[in-house]
Amino acid sequence: KNIKIKVPATVANLVCGFDILGMAINNPYDEMELRLLETPDIIIKHTDHFGLPEEASKNVAGVVLLKMQEHLNLKNGFEVIIHKNIKPGSGLGSSAASAAGAAYAANILLGNILSKEEVVHFAMFGEELASGVRHADNIAPCIYGGITLVKSSDPIDIIPLNTPDLFIAAVHPQVEVKTSDARQILKKDIRLKDAITQWGNIAGLIAGIEKNDLSLIGRSLNDVIIEPVRSILIPKFHEIKTKSLELGALGGGISGSGPSIFMITERKETAEHIARMMSSVYDEINVASFVYVSDIN
Ligand code: HSE
Predict the structure, then answer these.
(1) Which one of the listed residues 179, 227, 265, 270 is annotated catalytic?
(2) Any ligand 1 atom below 6 A from CB of 135
(3) Global pTM?
(4) Complex ipTM value
(5) Is 55 a catalytic residue?
(6) Is residue 179 in contact with ligand 1, taking CB distance under 6 Å?
(7) For the stretch 28-66, what's the b/e string if a residue is b when 16 or more beta carbons lie within 10 angstroms of its beta carbon?
(8) Along the chain (297 residues), what's the average pLDDT of each consecutive run of 10 residues?
(9) Is 227 a catalytic residue?
């Protein structure tokens, strides 16, 4: 038995919802092929040259399958072929895609024995290997599609939200930002005043998404806690954000822990226009970049 799936990139946090909100986009995406083996081996192969480890215990898809084998007492193994288009270290959920794709496809091969929450549970072992933290804000939208709220990750409580008809422009500048470093620099304590602003934004964003209220979505895409600290790691962040808003973006910010920046727009042409601007801003400072225009998956 084998299966081939497309696994979407994801934008975690959605600016104000650190570790709780995420959105699946349809460009870029990975492709994964899984085959159920009669032997207990976990074999991982990549068709790209990103240099990701293929030893099962060191690979995000591999650890997910090892945990499934162990916890579900499986006699079978899996062969996995990963065609990776979501660049590792981009902040577009590359590790989550491998982890979520492995759990999702393995569950189908096993005859759908797991609930979606259980698929998320297993996929989170991959995120833990990649970043040291069991967060599900990339995993959940990758598995559920659209926009999701991770109300709690222990116990897993995921709320799929409405999918407004919006477009995304994203740029991945070729600078390294490790998720672990981008988490380490965050302040551990926040002021009550900032917390109030932030939960106003999160509540406003969710209400805006549910009501298809684009103006409310735009007004709520603000982050007074994480972005001021992390944006210093991303060259030209403020210039790109300001120019995107001038060109008509509803709002946007850092995708996950960066370095990618994403902007949400009402029209596809606006997203395309912003993507061209993003690319030229990085060209000017000789930083290579990749840009993506997408809608919500
Ligand atoms: N919510 C996580 C963070 C996503 O911002 O650190 C990292 O992929």
Answers:
(1) 179
(2) yes
(3) 0.96
(4) 0.98
(5) no
(6) yes
(7) bbbbbbbbbeeeeebbbebeeeeebeeebeebbbbbbbb
(8) 97 98 97 97 92 93 97 96 95 97 98 97 95 91 98 95 97 92 92 98 98 98 97 97 98 97 98 98 97 95
(9) no
140 is in an annotated binding site: no
- 91 C-alpha to center of ligand 1: Å? 8
